[in-house]
Write a structure and sequence with these properties.
Blueprint (H helix, E strand, L loop, with lengths): L1 E3 L3 H9 L3 E3 L3 H10 L4 E2 L4 H6 L8 E4 L15 H6 L2 H35 L3 E4 L2 H21 L1 H24 L16
Parallel strand pairs: 1-2, 1-3, 4-5
Helix pairs in contact: 1-6, 6-7
Length: 192
């Protein structure tokens, strides 16, 4: 199965699971699905999937989105220019960025909820991965992360930080299940 996916790690994980990852720009996805160049795709949030009209060329929706557990928004500023800003302006940029992120997260969540309802009303069927399938994916994910961490010390440092964060919030997040957002990791890669 040929699947369009964004990201090196997601592609390697799909490959480990037996799929053939395909890299292509978002502008090519609709036609590639329509013509059978790819069998499936990962694109974005339901809000964006609906805007791209992917429901016109797909019949099924695989959930949960194990390949992308969060979306990152950010602002990129030239370090030299940032360093030259006075502290009061840095604080304004930081606060405005935080406010923008919270606003975008809220609107995206609502818009994706509405888009999900529209997509389902148009006849797209949900196929939900079983707990057994999710455990297989998690095992392969951990193997991949262990390999990448062994090859790249910077990756290992970031991953260790993420694991510590997840271990800190997991007890609280688990108290929210099944109603809260996200799922705590069931196991962790063995980092040397």
């Amino acid at each position: 199965m040929k699947i369009r996916v964004g990201g090196l790690i997601q592609g390697k994980l799909l490959q480990a699971l037996g799929a053939q990852p395909v890299a292509m720009s978002g502008s090519e996805v609709y036609e590639a699905l329509q013509r059978g160049v790819i069998d499936a795709c990962e694109f974005s949030t339901p809000e964006m999937d609906l805007a791209m009209k992917l429901n016109e060329v797909t019949k099924f929706w695989l959930t949960p989105g194990f390949h992308q557990t969060s979306t990152i928004n950010g602002i990129i500023i030239n370090k030299k220019n940032w360093d030259e800003l006075p502290d009061d302006l840095k604080a304004i940029v930081e606060n405005a960025s935080k406010a923008c992120y919270v606003s975008r997260f809220a609107s995206s969540t609502l818009n994706s909820a509405k888009a999900t309802n529209e997509i389902l009303a148009m006849g797209v069927k949900i196929n939900r991965l079983s707990n057994e399938d999710l455990l297989i994916i998690e095992r392969e994910k951990n193997k991949l992360m262990e390999t990448l961490a062994a090859e790249n010390p910077e990756y290992a440092a970031v991953l260790k930080s993420q694991i510590e964060f997840d271990k800190t919030i997991a007890p609280y997040r688990n108290q929210l299940e099944p109603w809260g957002f996200g799922k705590a990791w069931g196991s962790y890669p063995d980092l040397k």
